[in-house]
Amino acid sequence: MRILVICGAGASSTFVAMRLRHAAHNAGLSVQALAGTVESLAVDLDSTDILLVAPHLARELPDLEQFAAQRSVRVILLPEDVFSDIDGTRTLRTVLPAMSTDLPLTPPTTDFPIERTPHG
Description:
Low-confidence stretches: 101-120
Structural class: alpha/beta
Oligomer: single chain
């Protein structure tokens, strides 16, 4: 599963993608999470399964959804507090419903522990 996180300049999305990768790894999920920008979408969407959109791009969401639909990419608008998700677990929970059920899991289970943080 390849997930692309986009924001305006790519800095914030880099942190979200890194935290999401870490949370997915800890959950035993095989996930690639990468950061990008709106400007890089024309290239990046060709190898993307799920597009995560930073909350400050909400006004652009209809256009992004239309562009992504042409490539059968699912789109999720991230919540306003996504940047306070220090360990990435809340972001992972946001993405899980959009992920297909055939993701490889290790160990073989669909449940994974998510520790509550003071922020979540």
